[in-house]
Amino acid sequence: MTGTALDYLPVLLGWAVLVPLISFVLVVLFGPRMGRHGRLAGYVATGAIMTSAVLAFVSLFIWLAVEGTGADLLHHGGSSGKHAAAGHQQDHATQQHGEEHAAGEHAAGEHAAGRHKPRVLFGTWYVLSPPGVPEIGISYYIDCLTVVMFAMVTLIATLIHIYSTGYMAEELDDEVVDHEAHTADGRHVHRRGRYHRFFQYLSLFCFSMLGLVLSGNVAMTFVFWELVGVCSFFLIGFYIERRSANLAANKAFIVNRVGDFGMIIGLMALWGSLGTFNYGDTVDAQGHVQARGLFSLIRPAEHGHRIHVPDGAVKAAAAEQVAAVVADHLKSEGPTEQALANAKSETQARVDQWRKEEPGRGAYWLLVIAGLGIFCGCVGKSAQFPLHVWLPDAMEGPTPVSALVHSATMVAAGVYLV
User: Would you give the DSSP letter of residue 217?
Assistant: First the structure.
């Protein structure tokens, strides 16, 4: 019964992400024709985020019910058949101790630590990368923080959508007079209302924010991270005729790009050292770990969840030594598959030695650079010093934008990623 209920979580939260996207597409295509001056666009967007809130709270109640039973999470299935539950992996590792020594150490380390088994659902809906390379796809990573964040974001967004239907009512007029924007001859700007466009931006923002929370790999997180920034640019500069709003939108966009540049450097360091973007472990239908995710690589259970420089990072830092080993084997044995296999075995045998020497220290600092780089992105989005300068000017957007984007969700996204 528990496993059946948990199977619905990726579906429920997946639809909670997609419903605002559907609202965005409908408003883009039919917004001006949704009632008089697009009035129904507000109801469509509000109904969409309200639906997401219902799905999010149902998921939260399911999660709390499972926590109350004390049962381990067990989840398999999906389009790719690659899902993980941390508690299940540890139990399975104990059962397979004779066959997989590393997995047995993983479970033994967890048992010795005496810690509560983390509850995680990880899986891939669609694989984007070609066969033979590390997996990059559309995936999800669901834990307690995910379901709580979903409930918080959707609840606040629903309330702000409802408030916005009244606050933005002046945008329903045929002619809106903006007393803070002036033409070249000094007169107030007269323009058509943009009621539907405001809710179009809100729906896209909600889709981006919820996708950020649900994302199961760093690449997917970065895509939604940028979408959130683009939506913030549109919403801050909603009153585009005002010079102050234009400057504020540009300032927010540019300052966030500074943080995102550091985040890109962090992504490159992660990919170069670890060879994966996935947060969780990829397992097959029988529960065998096929590939470890970032969390298991950096803080493996067999090392007491302490920071550990993974083998892949050491090999990346010891590229010259690895090349020398391969060259020696090819020279002595010839260009054969057996020579390459022997070189691979010797390289793996020397990893522990390299970890204690200069390559290991270099790999450790490469991981430090990765962490600091990703943290730069968090500093920009959450308006931390010294990339905080855009936030006061961002109040040039409509009041609902300040409430939703710059206090409750996007700024909180930086803290969430940390």
Answer: B
